[in-house]
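In response to reviewer comment 3 from the previous cycle, which asked for concrete evidence that the modeling workflow produces usable outputs, we include below a single protein chain processed end to end. The sequence was submitted unchanged, and the resulting structure tokens are shown without manual editing.
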Amino acid sequence: MTHKQTMLKFSMSKSLSKTAFKVATFSAIVLLAGCLGKPPTAGDSGNFIEEAKVKEAPATANKTMPASATSSVSQAITIEKLTPRHSYELKVINSMLKRFHYKKFALDDAFSEKILKQYIKQLDPSKVYFTQSDINEFNKHSKQFDDDIEAGDTTFAVELFKTYQQRVKERSDYAVKRIDQPFDFKKNQRYVLDRKDAAWSSDNKALDALWEKRIKNDYINQLLSDKKPDETIKSLKKRYLSIAKRTSQIKSNELFQSIANAYAGAIEPHTSYLSPRSSEQFDINMSLSLSGIGAVLRTDDENTKIISVVPGGPADLTGMVSAGDIIVGVGQGSKDAVKDIVGWRLTDVVNIIRGKKGSKVVLSILPHETGLSGKAEFVNIVRDKIKLEHQAASKRIITIKRSTGDVKVGVIKLPSFYIDFKARNRGDAEYAGTTRDVKKLLIELNKEGINELIIDLRGNGGGSLSEVVSLTGLFIDKGPVVQINDTTGRTDILRDNDSGVIYNGPMAVMIDKGSASASEIFAGAIQDYKRGLIIGETTFGKGTVQTVLPLASYARKQFDKPFGELKVTSAQFFRVNGDSTQHKGVVPDISWNLPKLEEEFGERSYKNALPWRKINMAKHVNFSNAFSLGALAKAKQQSLKRIAQTPRFVSTVNRLKLLVEAGNEKVTSLNLAKRKAKREQFNKKLLAFENQLQAAKGKPSYKTVKELRDAQEKINDDIFNKKKPVDVFLNEAANILADLRGTQFFSARK
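The workflow returned the following structure tokens.
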């Protein structure tokens, strides 16, 4: 079977993004853009552009939506019909899912209903576009999806999408008109923020009432951000118009990806179809390299703004490209070929800026010094190989002061388990790989005389299965690392067969709720071998293996457009002790009582996720110099006592509590005076906590919340700076290891 390297991968779906303070940024790297396997929705951050017409003729429709569901579709809205290639591709996807998916399922009428629900959920997750009348019409075809998939027929799905486009346009038109009318901000109305479990609006009148509150809430948010009423109206009009514009310009491949993912997602949450563009992005994520110019971009209204430049990259070397510049045009080879890209969707801008190594791209740029009113300058850039080193493993040393002497704690931050398969297979000695890179860092840290080691896996969502097995081997002599149960029911044990270790001293692994899949295998193995201490939060709980299969390898027909790929859940993994990490995750040995969002997080938040189960333990030999239970209990008590007396830690937790409380809000007031009073109270508390942290760091206080936000955004945009300040949790983990010094061997370290 031809397939890519088996992966363990997950996408974070829950966050603190609903908090009143956190600023959402929609950014892309010219080397890395977009989301893996995420179908387009009306909430996409950029604008869609027209796709070049395909050579294939449109597929013939043989089923249609009832007139009542589609007759209102505006002639101004167009959607490309899906082609015979898409029809054939859907059949191939169906065959592969039935053959290779770990979870056995029957594509019948009952499952067809699940696919329809998934498709509608993808399009309208907040239930703000469709009415119950629309849903009733769709449900008349709820048992049709299975037959359509078998036949490769996308007609019903496309017609449903056209209805969605029309509903978005109707809401956009309503919002643009309504924003010009006055609001009564003294009314004690309430608006539901989290609508995923809300009922569908019964009809358009009810939907108008919902949008009345939605628009009013948007208006209040703008006013609370110190915008004047005329600025607010202008800004919101632009926002509402852009919603319809984006959905009216969705491309055929993106629509097909959404349809295919409705099927895949109805089976299990980690299975998805990758369009050719998404597949390319997946390769970039795993290899940490591409050919481009080296710049981070973000959509700013209708413009594409540069927010950061890769040090030493092609753009940086010109000396003419800086953070804050706005790209208004892009051309291939010469300035005569430059096209205006204002209003383009970010991923499309990225797509034409990327290119082959050695080729030339010309950017038309408005320098940040002059802004939108300035004169555009042409910049010639020769594309080159860009290494995404900010996403690779990195090291630092934390020195902990003790009466008996300084303790040097080495830290390796690992954002993902990556591997450049192509470079490795062609014999490139400098290929990017987790184990290779970490081994090099460990050798350097050993030479620098570290006493202890922390592997920081916080936020590490997974990656290559082979890499996590080989990485574990750097810390254990020999033995099993993970057990894999496949579709046949057979369980294989993946082992580290190389004797010897690169580091055999005391160590800890830091995890949090964002640590998933491959991270859970590594942390679980270290814990099962008693090789080190696990510190932090319980992990995500993803215990499944995904394999990426190129559809072209299973297709018999050839088309002039490339096929995509299928990321299919093909197995379930189990720890050395026999436990699955599915749902339960890895529970740390030492954790802190941190505030949590009320909403379910991780694998347990998915209704169709695979269940937890247990198999037999794999035979292994525990680490001979493990920390004793007594030493761990004592270290935990010392940690709790220390953090209670550490102002920076206390302030961090208080700040987190404030943000979590805001994130837990499901309903908000539409009374302006009440909202303003609550926001002022929130800002006052936030500023106080942040300034306590500033004082603990010996830095000046922020005078206003705006100054704080601007500073935070600058830090977030500076993605290439790995030497950011040590956070309180990492510092405390280092202190815990220092407390344990003497309870584990030291002299035997080599």
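Residues 1-77, 745-750 have pLDDT under 50 and may be disordered. We consider this sufficient to address the reviewer's concern, and the full set will be provided in the supplementary archive.
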